[in-house]
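Handout, page 2. Input:
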Amino acid sequence: QEQVVESGGGLVEAGGSLRLSCVASPRSLSLHDMAWFRQAPGKEREFVERINTISGSTNYADSVKGRFTNDKNSAENTLFLDMKTLKPEVTDIYYCNAKTIFDRENWGQGTQVTVTS
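Output:
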């Protein structure tokens, strides 16, 4: 069964850092790209960053450039999101999306990030 699981969210003060993790399983899953999105209550899900797991190319939303970076472990189908200099406005539920080379995609259940001022 294909599955995506996020972890690493939590409560942090403004200026702090968090590292989110996303694991797509099973390990044999042939991924094409993995991405992070975020969503506030009552709002649409918003793109944060994406990495092409084959080429390694990445792109970020303008709002997070310079503060968020990603890292991956392709062998483990794992994507990390390093979030630095956090601001209260990035408080959201963060979701991971994993897309296979056959264009099947799966979403995780989300992990809450809360930044206090």
